[in-house]
Amino acid sequence: MKWMSKRFTFVVIPDANQSVQRYSVSGLTIVLIPALIILLAVCSALFIVLFSGQAGNLKEAKHQLSLSESGYEEQLKEREDTIAALEADVTALSAQAKHVETKMSEIAELELQLKEIAGIQESEVRISSGGVTVEEGGQGGEELLLPEDLNDALAAETLQELSSMALQMDEMKPSLEATKEALLKHQRILEITPTIWPADSRKITSTFGVRRDPFTGRAAVHSGLDLGGSRGDPIYAAADGTVTLSERTYPHGNNILIDHGRGIETRYLHLNKRLVEVGDKVKKGDLIGELGNTGRSTGPHLHYEVIVGGEHVDPMPYLQEDREEK
């Protein structure tokens, strides 16, 4: 290729008023310039082809990313809806639990009142939650994890159980109220029933019924119970009631009559001193007088009578307990 080593001259003829310009280039330069232009054209074409392919891939990737984002938003919304439903269930469970707790407190208070009325001491046995006492010791390490799809069923089941418990407690409360009323009524009956000894002495000097009269020696009906003691010993009301008589007469001496209601009365004769007056309200065990020897009496003692429906009865069956210290 000898012509490539040769030089070629190009003549440029401008306007007539300007000089002619000559350019001298080698044959190699003439070959390289077109080759370079062709190479640039080929590279541009390849770049365009490659860029078009990458643009398509980028568009597809953006589309896939958009779909994934939409799917994640749906999943997130479902999660938020599930959480909201669970929160609503938890709120309902909390309200139900408070309702049950309130009813349990009412029943516990009612039970305490019943125990106080009946005089029952608090048991020392403690029951833990669920009725089972948990003690320290060996324990297993297995745990059962509930799947998420059981949450709704568990919440619904718990709500149903709590509602059932509340209904049962609603049914129990009237029964306990009735029991309380019955106990109060029974307690009131006990309060107005002469069940305690009217004196500290347990020395019986004469029983109820027919006996030999200590003054005449003849058989006579003794309408009460005589309790021996010392002059000035305390005498107590055998039950709650109202004093209807407080006087000194013969042969009864200083004597007191108490009306306990329900047709029951008690009378206390031969007192050394009377400490209550007509119209006074007395409680079981209240001090009402002193043991004495007034009226028709052979020595210091209390003549105690129980009268039911206007008839004198034997006081012994009524004497069931000692006076409680106040």
UniProtKB/TrEMBL annotation:
Parts of the chain that traverse the membrane: 28-51
InterPro entries, sorted: Cell_wall_metabolism_enzyme (IPR050570), Dup_hybrid_motif (IPR011055), M23ase_b-sheet_dom (IPR016047)
Keyword presence, Cytoplasm: no
GO molecular function annotation: metalloendopeptidase activity
CDD domains on file: M23_peptidase
Coiled coil region boundaries: 69-103
Keywords per UniProt: Coiled coil, Membrane, Signal, Transmembrane, Transmembrane helix
Domain M23ase beta-sheet core: start-end pairs: 221-315
Recorded superkingdom: Bacteria
UniProt cross-references to SUPFAM superfamilies, sorted A to Z: Duplicated hybrid motif (SSF51261)
One Pfam assignment: Peptidase_M23
PANTHER family given in the database record: L-ALA--D-GLU ENDOPEPTIDASE, PEPTIDASE-RELATED
Protein's name according to its UniProt entry: M23 family peptidase
